[in-house]
């Protein structure tokens, strides 16, 4: 008999943006589904109505779309399935796997206070667990799961291996509140079962939840999905990731100028490995991804490593993808590019992406062609354009009359001039960059001259010469 189709899911609570830890969880689920020809589903766990706004949900979806993680089918809403959740709770009630508990919050707190005083480790023990129905009062109640009181509870995990707890660890968890609303513990199990989820990949902070949820699966006679609980992401100091460590939301990484391809590569390496491979394409990640490469220790966010990964992808990705990402980034930072600017950027891309680590670096270097003329000369560039360097640029211009207009040919002409005058090539290259771009942070002057063309290049150099002479 063939195995069922792999079905994974990402089930975030809408908090207004996609957290970096959630993004990695989504990525692992997506990779495993794509690696096995399965489905990757998206469910919004929107039962907290105060926080679950359309804007928050839209922000989550936007984060997934930016990261390039496409989901299969429609988006599932947990809140919309509340009737189904209630029906399952009532089914468990009728089969004796659940019971009505009439204990008040004051009674429960009194039990816990006494337990603390007595050093009693047992969770709340409801007196209504085995009470006769005839003794039930006409009062508000919750529906609780009858958890085992003896023995142990064990699950198999593809990352953590076999994990077990003493049965006394678990309380009789509430599945329906007194107002009839289902709890997360019940809803997530019912939704995963109904959606046909075969593999649950999530953070290891949910590990004990897997033990609790397995009890509901068993009570309903449902197949338990395969669990894979992955280690959390920590900051560079080894502590739980928070705002003090820098960017924590995917939208922040987009605004910082990282490419989605680079983020997928970097996030995949946080907790998963394929031999010693550090740099790889998304297609390679799909082909390689499995649970054998998962580690058990927390991963550490490392911005220096992320920058290295980003630089690699800027250098190796095809130009059409890079231009698309640059256009999206420019819009993200509220500096959209016109069609003409995109054309100009395409011509300058090869010299601007050299040694660039983020998309913003490319746009900074491309200002020589994006900003238009006349140039704004920064202080460092102005210092470069002194009487000595202007004299050198005038001589260079004279030698360029019959030169083929390529970066290599212009470079050779400049090198000959440097040799003839007994100066270093930088004495020509640095003021040339200043004259052409007005910025210290710009590409090679010879490369800029090829991109700008003969007429524009000579016009800019001539303008710099005249300004100094004046």
Automatic annotation (TrEMBL):
- Annotated residues for binding of ATP: 243
Entry's localization field: Cytoplasm
InterPro entries, sorted: aa-tRNA-synth_I_cd-bd, aa-tRNA-synth_I_codon-bd_sub2, aa-tRNA-synth_I_CS, aa_tRNA-synth_I_cd-bd_sf, Glu-tRNA-ligase_bac/mito, Glu/Gln-tRNA-synth, Glu/Gln-tRNA-synth_Ib_cat-dom, GluQ/Sye
Q: Classify the main location.
A: cytoplasm
Record motif 'KMSKS' region, residues? 240-244
Write out the GO MF terms: ligase activity
Statement: the UniProt record of this protein carries the keyword Acetylation: no
Query: Which SUPFAM superfamilies does this chain map to?
Result: An anticodon-binding domain of class I aminoacyl-tRNA synthetases, Nucleotidylyl transferase
What EC identifiers does the entry list? Answer: 6.1.1.17
Gene3D superfamilies in alphabetical order: 1.10.10.350, HUPs (3.40.50.620)
In what residue span(s) does the Aminoacyl-tRNA synthetase class I anticodon-binding domain sit?
Answer: 325-464
User: Could you confirm whether the keyword Cell wall biogenesis/degradation appears in this record?
Assistant: no
Task: Describe its function.
Answer: Catalyzes the attachment of glutamate to tRNA(Glu) in a two-step reaction: glutamate is first activated by ATP to form Glu-AMP and then transferred to the acceptor end of tRNA(Glu).
User: Which NCBIfam families does the entry mention?
Assistant: gltX_bact (TIGR00464)
Protein family membership: Belongs to the class-I aminoacyl-tRNA synthetase family. Glutamate--tRNA ligase type 1 subfamily.
Protein known as? Glutamate--tRNA ligase
Q: Native species of this protein? A: Amylibacter marinus
The lineage is: Bacteria, Pseudomonadati, Pseudomonadota, Alphaproteobacteria, Rhodobacterales
């Amino acid at each position: 008999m063939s195995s069922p189709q792999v079905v994974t899911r990402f089930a975030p609570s809408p908090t207004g943006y996609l957290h970096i830890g959630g993004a990695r969880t989504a990525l692992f689920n997506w990779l495993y589904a794509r690696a096995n020809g399965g489905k990757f589903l998206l469910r919004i766990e929107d039962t907290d109505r105060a926080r679950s706004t359309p804007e928050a949900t839209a922000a989550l979806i936007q984060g997934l779309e930016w990261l390039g993680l496409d989901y299969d089918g429609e988006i599932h809403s947990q809140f919309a399935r509340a009737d189904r959740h209630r029906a399952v709770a009532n089914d468990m009630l009728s089969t004796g796997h659940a019971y009505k508990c009439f204990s008040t919050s004051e009674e429960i707190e009194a039990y816990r206070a006494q337990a603390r005083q007595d050093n009693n480790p047992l969770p709340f023990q409801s007196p209504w667990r085995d009470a006769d129905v005839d003794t039930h009062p006409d009062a508000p109640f919750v529906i609780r799961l009858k958890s085992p009181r003896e023995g142990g509870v064990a699950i198999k995990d593809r990352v953590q291996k076999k994990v077990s707890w003493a049965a006394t660890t678990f309380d009789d968890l509430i599945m329906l509140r007194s107002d009839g609303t289902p709890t997360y513990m019940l809803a997530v199990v019912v939704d995963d079962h109904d959606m046909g989820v075969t593999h649950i990949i999530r953070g290891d902070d949910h590990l004990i939840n897997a033990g609790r949820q397995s009890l509901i699966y068993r009570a309903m006679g449902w197949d338990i999905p395969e669990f894979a609980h992955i280690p959390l992401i920590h900051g560079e100091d080894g502590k739980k990731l928070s705002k003090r460590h820098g960017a924590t939301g995917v939208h922040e990484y987009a605004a910082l100028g990282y490419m989605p391809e680079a983020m997928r590569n970097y996030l995949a390496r946080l907790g998963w490995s394929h031999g010693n491979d550090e740099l790889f394409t998304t297609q390679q990640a799909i082909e390689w991804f499995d649970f054998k490469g998962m580690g058990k220790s927390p991963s550490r966010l490392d911005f220096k490593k992320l920058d290295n990964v980003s630089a690699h992808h800027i250098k190796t990705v095809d130009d059409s993808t890079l231009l698309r990402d640059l256009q999206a980034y420019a819009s993200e930072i509220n500096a959209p590019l016109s069609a003409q600017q995109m054309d100009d950027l395409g011509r300058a891309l090869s010299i601007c992406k050299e040694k660039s680590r983020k998309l913003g670096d490319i746009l900074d270097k491309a200002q020589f062609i994006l900003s238009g003329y006349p140039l704004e000369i920064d202080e460092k560039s102005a210092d470069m354009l002194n009487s000595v360097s202007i004299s050198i640029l005038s001589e260079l211009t004279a030698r360029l009359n019959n030169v083929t207009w390529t970066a290599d040919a212009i470079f050779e002409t400049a090198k000959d001039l440097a040799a003839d005058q007994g100066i270093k090539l930088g004495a020509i290259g640095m003021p040339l960059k200043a004259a052409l771009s007005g910025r210290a942070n710009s590409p090679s002057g010879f490369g800029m001259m090829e991109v700008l063309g003969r007429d524009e290049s000579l016009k800019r150099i001539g303008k710099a010469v005249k300004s100094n002479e004046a």
